[in-house]
Amino acid sequence: MAQEREFTSDPLVSHIYTADPSAHVWNDRLYIYPSHDIETDIPMDDTGAHFAMRDYRILSLEKVGGEVEEHGVALSVEDVPWAKRQMWAPDAARKGDKYYLYFPAKDEKDIFRIGVAVGDSPTGPFEAQPEPISGSYSIDPTVYQDDDGESYLYLGGIWGGQLQRWQTGEYVAEDSYPADDAPAIAPMVAKLSDDMLRFAEEPKEIELLYPDGTPIRAGDNEKRFFEAAWIHKYNDTYYFSYSTGDTHKIAYATGDSPYGPFTYRGVILEPVLGWTNHHSIAKFNDQWYLFYHDTELSGGQTHLRNVKMMPLAYNEDGTIKTLNAFAD
User: Fold this and answer.
1) What are the tens digits of pLDDT across the range 115-166?
2) Which of 43, 62, 95, 282 could join 23 in a cystine, given CB atoms 3.0 to 4.6 angstroms apart?
3) How does DSSP assign 163-197, residue by residue?
4) What is the distance between the alpha carbons of residues 224 and 244, in angstroms, rounded to a whole number?
5) Rounded CA separation 225/77 (Å)
6) Which residues pair with 95 in a beta bridge?
7) For residue 80, which of 48, 95, 102, 51 has the smallest C-alpha distance?
8) Terminus-to-terminus CA distance in the chain, angstroms?
9) Entry pTM
């Protein structure tokens, strides 16, 4: 019998399945906004139908290694007038005394849109706006708030995330992809309005480049963007990190603007147990951490995942040291 591998980190909670952790520190407490995975008999396919999540449960902790609190249902698909199903990876932001939960869901036409819900507490409950953000589409919204107070929403995911269906600017029901030697499909970014509820501009494509300045190619599955955008700043440099999808890595690129362009630098996290790899990065109590998921609790069932975290470190030149979810 093959020896079971040892994991680097333990699940933060084990009473529910959680995935896609977006981490933020507010009022000296760490808050994690994950997806809430559920059991389903829906067959696995490339559209991700077996990821059938229907609500959000927020986690928080006061210190690493301490008790992790799960705060109950913060938002459910039944509370969102326009949403039909599949509440995938969310993110959150704070402005003034309000908190904003950004989330993707499929509408009545089975098209992914991005919604926003507002609450008075980082743990909710959140009240959804009656319509999705105008001009939004695809999945994996993440919000970066820059030092000047401006907020930017990043989005996108191919395959089940439907980004490939928006290359003309309008939704096309059939999938199409660039040739392998053409630039890969790009993630999108748009500045948010002052009230955090709308785009302040048309979404723009983000250029992801090789170190020689040429665009990352669609056929380079080891480096091209698949889903799970995240952005953070370290020493005045913007770090754009993302999942490579079917090669199962968390990669990253760096740039001088929240709009990019971003130049590929390497791998943050090697493949985990399970098909998906989705992360966030945050600094908590003077230590940087990587938040991620794998499928340890479910024994490898790809749609039943668990959130974890581990310390993240930088080299002197600003590159990130590659991490592994396995300790052996």
Assistant:
1) 999 999 999 999 999 999 999 999 999 999 999 999 999 999 999 999 999 9
2) 282
3) GGGGTTSS--SS-----TTSBPPPPEEEEBPTTSS
4) 6
5) 28
6) 98
7) 102
8) 17
9) 0.97
* pLDDT at residue 2, rounded to an integer: 42
> What is the distance, to the nearest Å, from the Cα of residue 171 to the centroid of all Cα atoms in its chain?
22
Q: How far apart are CA 36 and CA 55, in angstroms?
A: 6
The helix (H) or strand (E) run that includes residue 100 is: strand 98-106
C-beta separation of 253 from 202 below 8 A: no
Res 4: pLDDT: 78
Q: Identify the helix (H) or strand (E) that includes residue 104.
A: strand 98-106
Cα separation, 92 vs 73, in Å, equals: 15
Residue positions annotated with a catalytic role = 20, 227
d(CA 72, CA 88): 17
Query: Tens digit of pLDDT for each residue in 181-194?
Result: 999 999 999 999 99
- 292: how many CB neighbours lie within 10 A of its CB? 29
Average pLDDT for residues 162-179, to the nearest whole number? 97
Q: Could you say which DSSP state residue 323 is in?
A: B
Q: Which positions ≥6 away from 68 have C-beta within 8 Å? A: 12, 13, 59, 60, 61
